[in-house]
Amino acid sequence: MSSHMEMLKNSVNDDISIVVTENYCTEATFTVTGEANYIEGMRVYEKHSTIYLDSLYHTGIYKVFAVVNLVKGEWDPSTASFASDADFLAFIRQAQARSLYDTGVEVTAADRILTLITCDRSYAAADGRLIVLAVEQ
Predict the structure, then answer these.
(1) How many CA atoms lie within 13 A of 7 on its CB side?
(2) How many whole angstroms separate alpha carbon 75 and alpha carbon 118?
(3) Any alpha helices (H) in the chain, and if so which ranges?
(4) Which of 7-16, 58-67, 119-128 has the lowest mean pLDDT?
(5) Cβ contact 69:132 at 8 Å
(6) Which pLDDT score is estimated for 133?
(7) Which residue, of 110, 115, 125, 137, has the greatest Cβ tally within 10 A?
(8) What is the residue-averaged pLDDT of the chain?
(9) Cα–Cα distance between 41 and 44 in angstroms, integer?
(10) Whole-prediction pTM value?
(11) How far is CA 7 from CA 18, 26, 29, in A?
């Protein structure tokens, strides 16, 4: 499975937003539903709430602030440029409102975020997506 990374300049504050997406999806090999899925997800979050990114272009430590399941087309989590700080914060509020877990992690207009997007066939077949959003520390 190959991945691709886009590094896009934010038009508001000239920071770099990072969006990582998979090029294609594969069948899910593990499926848990309902409360068991929520509990298992919280266990995973508690153990893995920090993302370490080390690429040719950027090194950073990120704290997960939202984990979202959605059907492709419901919302665009790959947005990387915002016309204003208010638009950026509206995007953050949308991610937090859709999040499976209340992480308690704060995000401000001055922050930089990392968005990881992959297919989640266990959620909505071929159109399911799992999005992990994290704020740089």
Answers:
(1) 9
(2) 14
(3) 34-47, 85-98, 121-124
(4) 7-16
(5) no
(6) 92
(7) 115
(8) 74
(9) 5
(10) 0.71
(11) 5, 25, 30
> Is pLDDT above 90 for 135?
yes
Taking CA atoms, 102 is separated from 6, 17, 65, in Å, by 27, 23, 8
Structure tokens at 83: 């016309």
Do the strands 16-22 and 50-54 form a parallel or antiparallel pair, or are they unpaired? Answer: unpaired
Distance of CA 82 to the CA centre of its chain: 16
| Total Cβ atoms within 10 A of residue 133 | 25
pLDDT digits (tens, 9 = 90+) for 75-115: 999 888 899 999 999 999 999 999 988 999 999 999 999 88
Q: In the beta sheet, which residues pair with residue 103?
A: none
DSSP lists the bridge partners of residue 61 as: 52
